[in-house]
């Protein structure tokens, strides 16, 4: 631990910008004189991209709490893939394809799963010549499969956890090889194993997860994977730490550049940060509260279709109804350009365009040759987040993330918290206004 203490001091001087895929520790805030511990996690297969982004925030806050209690936990980012909404069944996609790792690291230290496997982490920056590989080929010490209580919540909701026998589907997701290591999905990496596996019934939040991991049976372990991590909630939904984690989730610089310069904002939407008052500081920690953002001269719409038509049938407009809403908005706001983010099939998009009057120009980003489903989703969200006015789909987490981006950029509330109403209720209730807190 002497070595770690010395390294901690050296790390304080490491240039922020030089290594964007490795973690750094803010030594003013956290002690690094303790043994590193790696927290891995995974989420239920059926959950979509944007709920997964929310689960990241819950886990990042659990790591923050663990670090504040003196433990040196590092969050290992679960590779993306096998999402049932994605047309292409890709697996093992790294976070840097979507997010800016340097920004994530300004909230809590994170590393990619690949780097965890290679044993690459902060200490390699400093000890370039003698970079050691602590985790390479080592199994994960423990998988903890979170589940609810078989008997339900009882009469009141209390935060608690207990080791319990595994309920379905936990017992089918991990298999022991003889009496040695455990096999599981592990994001498609076939060689990865865990030494121990157990199920824990839990009801609680990031703080409850911290309490679980503070237990003495984890003290000797250096890597713990929490599966079904969506089971835990936010400790305080919408508080300053919720927003810090959210603000740290800046999109990858490459995606922003594509959205800003090479394609839409500049070329088609007459939109740029200077005119739109949407500029951001390089370091999200320096952002300050504002409500003056104007946004580009276009309407951003998130038009959720496909499975949403079944899940939220009563709450969505028809195609013609959507066109009517857009026509009215465009007249009211005097905006003739529309940026359309949607998962709708082409026939529905063509039908929507058919109903719109000719002066209304509809733009979409569709370069699926160069970009994967998740990257196009982020470009869609980014472009909706920079529009003068945004309207989303009822209770879609895809729309929620756009609303959060707009809160971070600093738009007036009235331009953000809007939803498409169903044809039979044009005065429908508008979304809750989850305002940013600094
Ligand atoms: O992100 P997501 O959880 O949002 O799932 P919801 C929807 C997925 O559909 C996205 C695609 O991750 C994208 O892959 N998608 C939807 C879009 N809208 C767009 C869009 O405008 N542009 C692009 N490029 N892609 C929930 C699901 O979805 O809906 C649940 O998480 C369930 O599993 C429920 O299916 C009905 O919150 O909208």
Descriptive notes:
- The chain is of the alpha/beta class.
- Helices cover 32% and strands 16% of the residues.
- It has 16 helices and 13 strands.
- The strands form three sheets. The chain has a seven-stranded mixed sheet with strand order 3-2-1-9-4-8-5. It has a four-stranded parallel sheet with strand order 12-11-10-13, sandwiched between helices. The chain has a two-stranded antiparallel ribbon with strand order 6-7.
- α2 links the parallel β1 and β2.
- α9 crosses α15.
- The chain is globular, with a radius of gyration of 23 Å.
- The protein starts with a helix and ends in a 29-residue tail after the last helix.
- The site of guanosine-5'-diphosphate-beta-L-fucopyranose has 23 residues, from α2, α12, β11, α15 and α16.
Instruction: Report the oligomer.
Output: single chain
Give the helix/strand class: alpha/beta
Q: Poorly predicted ranges (pLDDT <50, ≥5 residues)?
A: 1-25, 122-130
Ligands: guanosine-5'-diphosphate-beta-L-fucopyranose
Q: Give me the side-by-side strand order of the main sheet.
A: 3-2-1-9-4-8-5
Please trace the helix and strand order, writing H or E for each element.
HEHEHEHHEEHEEEHEHHHHEHHEHEHEH
Helix content: 25-40%
Q: Percent of residues in beta strands?
A: 15-25%
Query: Main β-sheet, in a few words?
Result: 7 strands, mixed
Distance, first to last CA: 36 Å
Number of strands: 13
Using the alpha-carbon principal axes, give the shape: globular
Topology:
Elements: H1 2-11, E1 36-41, H2 49-68, E2 72-77, H3 101-104, E3 110-112, H4 113-118, H5 122-126, E4 140-147, E5 160-164, H6 170-173, E6 175-176, E7 182-183, E8 194-203, H7 206-213, E9 223-227, H8 240-247, H9 253-262, H10 264-268, H11 273-276, E10 296-303, H12 308-311, H13 319-333, E11 337-342, H14 346-355, E12 361-363, H15 373-385, E13 387-391, H16 397-409
The chain binds guanosine-5'-diphosphate-beta-L-fucopyranose.
Guanosine-5'-diphosphate-beta-L-fucopyranose binds at residues 46-51, 85-86, 302, 304, 307-308, 311, 341-343, 373, 376-377, 380, 396-398.
